[in-house]
Each structure stands twice: as C-alpha cells, then as structure tokens.
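Hi C.,

You asked whether I'd gotten around to modeling the 504-residue construct. I have! Everything is below, sequence then structure, no commentary in between.
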Amino acid sequence: MKTLVSTLFVLLVSIITFGQNQYLEYTSTTDPYLNTGKANGGEYKYKATVKCRASAPGLGDVRVQCSILSFEILSFEYDGKYYNRSEEGFPMVIDNIQSDLDVTFKFSFNSWSETFFSHKIYGVRKGAFDLAYLTDDEVKKLGLKTSKDFYDLGFSFSIESLTNTYFEELDNFKNGIKKDEFKKREIEKKQNQDDTFQKWEAEQKRKADWNLKVLESEARIEKEKREAAQKKKEYEDSFKSKAQKQHERDVKKWFNVFSSINNIDIRDADLESGSWGVSYSLNDFNETSLFYSHISAWDNFFFAFDFKATMLSYKAYESENDIDDYSDLLQIGEIHDGDLVIQNHSSSFNETSDRVYRQNKINSFGGNVGVGLGLRFNLSRATALRFLVMGDIGMGSELPVSYGYNFKTQLEIGAIILGISYNTTTYNFGNLIGDSEYLDIDKIVTIDQLGDNLEENTWATENYYNYDNNQRTYYTSNRDLIGEYQNFNKITQNYFQLSIAYKL
C-alpha cells in the first residue's frame, strides 16, 4: 500500500508541475532597408522577425533557442534593374525558410553592467526553435551562483544577418558548377537503394514462406476438427426423430436473433455518487463554473458526467461606428487609443465603409456538458484518488460553441473533493464571411491573434497620430486580409483548472 501511495503521489506532483519550464524571451526584427543577400546573380533586400529564448537547465549549461517567425523578400536588384512593386510579386513571403543566423546576445545584470556574446547558429528554421550553447568561458562571465540566478538577468539580442546559403547553392547549381558532383551522388544513391531493396526483398520472401507454412498447418488442423465434429453430429442425428430435428431448427433460428441481447449482463455499480462544486480556469477567459458531477464506479473503473453553469469574462473589440473614410475621425480625435479600424468593411447589404471597433469587457453566460472515463483508488476508508479523461462541449450567450478535452486528478477527503485538471479547449466565436463579397463582424476576440503587442501580427498594422499634443495608438486592417484566415475568431487555450466540490 505504501508503494502504491508513493507512486500515486509522484504521478500527482508530475501532473501539477507539467509545463513549468522557464525561459528568458526576446523578439527582434531586422532593418528592412539595410539587410541584403545575394541570389541568382542579383541582390535582394529582406525583412525578418526572429524570436529567441534562453534557459539554464543546469548551472554550467546555458542554452539559446532561436526561431524565424517571418521572412519577406522586399525587393530584388538584377542586371541594373530594381524590382519592388506589388505587381511584380513583392513582398515575397517565404514560408519554409532555413537560414544561418549571425546574432549578438546581450545579458544585463543591471543598468550599468552588460555582457555580449556573438554566435552563428546554422539552419535556423521557421516554426521550430534551433539550439545553441554558450561556451564554458561565456557561462563563467555571467557570474551565476545558481541556475536560478540566470532568470534574474535581462535578455535581448541584435541580428547581424540571416544568410540563406541554399539560395547561393541553387544559383551555383543553375550555372552548372555542381552538375558533375550531383550526378555522382545520384549514381551512388541509386546503387545504395538497389542493394538495400534486394536485402529487403529477400527478407520479405523468407517471412512470407514461413507465414505460409504456419497458415497451411493451422488450416489442416482446423479442417480435421471440423470433419470430426461433423461426423459426431451426423452420428447423434441418426437417433433423432423428424419432429425433434424440426424443433431444434426452430430454436436455433430464434436463438440467433436474441442471443446478442440475452448475453448482455451489466451488473449494478459498486458506487454511485453525486457532488456539487465550483471551478476556476487559469485561462484568458477567466472561466468560472458552478457544476454538478455524477460518477458510477465498478471496482476501480468509473464513468463520469458533468453539468456546468459557466461564466466567461474577457475583452473583445466591439463595433463602435461606421464611416465612409475613418481618416475624418482622426481630425476630431474620435479614434481612441487602442481602437481597431477595418477598412472596406461590408455588411450583408453589400454596403462598403470603414468600421471602428473599440475594446470592451464581455461577460458570457452559458452551460457545458462533459462525459469521461477514469480510475478510482481507495487510499483509506475516508479518502480516494481519481484519474479521469473527459470530453466537454458548451455554449454561451456571447459564445456560439466551445469544445475540448481535459485530464483530471481528484482527491476525495471525506465529503470534500479537491481537483486539478489540464484542459485544451477551442472557443469558436465565428465570423460571417460571404463569397469574398462581404464581411460582417460585430465582435473580434483578440486573445490569441492580437494580444498586447501587434508588431508580430500579420493581419493588423500598428499606427500613430497626435491629438491635443498626445500621441494615440490605433490599429488598421482590411476585410480581404481578414477573409484569408479560415480560423479567424477561433481560439484554442491550454490551461489548468482548479475545483472544489462537496459529495451529496
């Protein structure tokens, strides 16, 4: 029993501490007018946004991971001509980018003490963090006494350049410099493939011959059993009357119909329990729920059903007013700090205008239903431990639909049930987009898409203007750009949820 309790305690702690990795993070964007590269006999200018994060798993182990968030070719100069217009396809967004990154990292101890390290990280990609390690001498310069001291440092970096060596390699290939080398590698590759295929083919034939022998042996044994059973049945039937044989045929016909029903035997549950409780979710929607939970347990296995009344509290951009040209509002200061403007916004009546959105606090009331399976272990007469996986779907006054799943750990202490769960939930606020002819959105939820910093956002642009000697910040987008996002206003959250309940 002690071993079981220890094992369950370690599992509970590992679930609670899941996902608590620490990082120092920073994002930087290159100067679009200074950064250049060479390809196909010409020179291009580019703009790239890079995110780096640093961690110290151990005292002498400092790691820096970098990822390219976006990469655009802004212009191309070739044979004395300069190309940068949108009709010529610029800017070109490179989705699958992999570059060699020259970067200088800066770690700040305070306002007057800083340490710089320059590194070259090869093969940095988009969407994945590529790793570099600080040398032992560089780690010593940080003067860390414990690995925890590392997370008190300030962290930033400057991008020297991103070198796309494969652009140059393609250029060389085009000019025929590496054609001979390529042919040689292709010949060697084909020879290796032929040898490997022959070995694989021989092994597959050996396995097939062996399986065929096994199947033939099993078929022969099965045939002998069937023949023996048939002879026995014929011998027994020779002593039966015609009426008895007809009766057996009738019974067999009805038995085939009802046998599947007659064989179902579901015994009563060993334990059925209901409880009332409250829960709070550590997500961006501040989800608070009052719920009723029911379980039916057979030995250690149980079914669970949850019924929730839920309130969400969050911020969203709501439609403020429509105007032919929003620039008129800048003159009178009616574009407030933080407002969002959708240009060429259209309603279902196909009337085009600029629409101004303003961020407000939203409260949504609704309900959820959850169904799950789990295991329950008695620790003593008054305590028990539950592990549960559950699916969940819900609707609300300001939320069309939400759905997801969660992994729960619950501890029963007498009539009190304490719980913690890790949830993945998708909130689908939806948007109305016609056949590329009109766009009509009354509410824009920006928890994932916009956040506090729009510099990394691809569908909204940050702008400034002065009114009454005060600078105001606002954001602009347009209906065509928003229409390209299939999952616009569809937000997925990964979060922990805490709950307490009382058993009835």
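If it helps when you're writing up: Helices lie at 2-16, 136-141, 165-174, 179-237, 242-262, 327-331, 479-483.

Thanks,
B.
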